[in-house]
Amino acid sequence: MASRIINYPSNAIIYFNGDKSNSVYLVKEGQVTLEYTDIETGSLVQDTINTGEFFGVKSGLIRFPREEDARVSQKSQVIEFSTDEFEQLITKNTNIILKMLKSFSNQLRRTGKQMQKLVTNKTETDPASGLFLIGDYYYKTKKYTKASTVYKRFLACYGTHPLAEHAKKRIIEVKEAYENFGDGGGPTPNFENVTF
Amino acid sequence: MSSNTLDFGIGLFGKFGKTFKKDEIIFCEYEPGNSFFFLIEGRIKATKISADKEKTLDILSPGEIFGEMAILEDAPRSATMIALEDVKVLEFNKANFNGLMQSKPELAIKLLRAFAKRIYDQKRRLMILTLEDPDIKIMDVFLMLAENKGIDIYNSTDIKFDITPEDVANWCGMDKSKCSQILSHFQKQNRILLAQNSITVTNINDFYRMVNSKRKSFKK
Question: Which chain B residue lies closest to A139 (C-alpha atoms)?
Fold first, then answer.
């Protein structure tokens, strides 16, 4: 399939959620609305795609079913690229790839956080406490070498954080435990949980 | 950066190379990240600790890039990377990243595709987690696995999955003992067959119908 320009009247549907895909679209002129249901809330979400923007990239790139309905919200001219053509196009425009990588990475992190919230019922941890708690996890599970690495990295990154003094103490404790019992050995550590 | 400096030869290793011993942490979740890595030898695993359990998210093999999310977004690391055996990596900074993507667009596209697949996978898992009924959650885990295997959900019976009850618990973010309880109940109802290292679903279409009806009622 070669790239082709398609003229759509207002309200036309370009594709439906669940459709098979082997192409990526660019709005040459006009406006397209992507409509999908938010997984977590079940509410309808609408994203607007304006002139000069691509859509259907994620599904098109890996030929997965479309994740949304693409509806023309204003009379539009749209260019449809086959997946192969699209890849050729972006190969010559690496800045587009970098922008898309950034946007995908951002989406990954967002869904990752949603998942974390649903699994642990916890709201976000600040990075410093998060790192410290990973050290505690390894300490608790008697992986002293790993615990030591994490506490040391904590100090290197967050040396002035209120938890820094605790990290220093922990480093000495895990060193002792390692020397006495080795990784995986010794009694279950009984330490004071500190959070900030 | 010219493309031939990226042949990952010995010269490049001298400048950017790092080695890690088996079990060593390459970087830790929540650490600020200013660099990304190219794995040249050995395997590493990506883990995350949640609800006091360390879960493996992925295992990476030589030729793969990792740590790129932190530099793309100037955000902390989103997972911990641990060497599964002795490994060799090349560590690059942010400027190198842009250079690498520009000189090796095929690598950039490969990464883009990997991200797209990862987003689909994550969203599918999120769909399981948002279901409220624990029985339905477990059914949906099997549906997800069947989809990944490309199984025809309408016309297949006795589908064997090489997984353990613990894996199922992991996927639906459920307590292990509660998950095992539900699975044994399913077995009593002849819905599944539990074996040492596998679980066989007798009628996957039945699961599909159950899950689907719950999703529809949720959407209303």
Answer: B52
Mean predicted lDDT score pLDDT of chain A = 92
Q: Outline where B56-152 has alpha helix (H).
A: 68-73, 94-103, 105-130, 134-148
Closest-approach residue (CA) in chain A for B217: A42
User: N- to C-terminal Cα distance for chain B?
Assistant: 55
Which residues does chain B have within 8 Å of residue A117's beta carbon, measured at their own beta carbons?
none
Interface ipTM above 0.90: no
> If DSSP codes are grouped into helix, strand and coil, which group holds residue B91?
strand
List the strands of the sheet with B44-50, edge to edge. Answer: B25-27, B80-83, B44-50, B53-60
Closest CA to B101 of B60, B63, B67, B68: B68
Q: In the CATH scheme, what architecture does the domain A4-92 have? A: Sandwich (2.60)
- pTM across the whole model: 0.80
- Decide if B194 touches A, using CB distance below 8 A: no
Sorted by where each starts, the structural domains of chain B and their CATH numbers stand as 3-106 (2.60.120.10), 129-215 (1.10.10.10)
What is the distance between the alpha carbons of residues A106 and B120, in angstroms, rounded to a whole number?
A: 14
Among B105, B173, B96, CA closest to B138: B173
pLDDT in tens, A22-68: 999 999 999 999 999 988 888 999 999 999 999 999 999 999 999 99
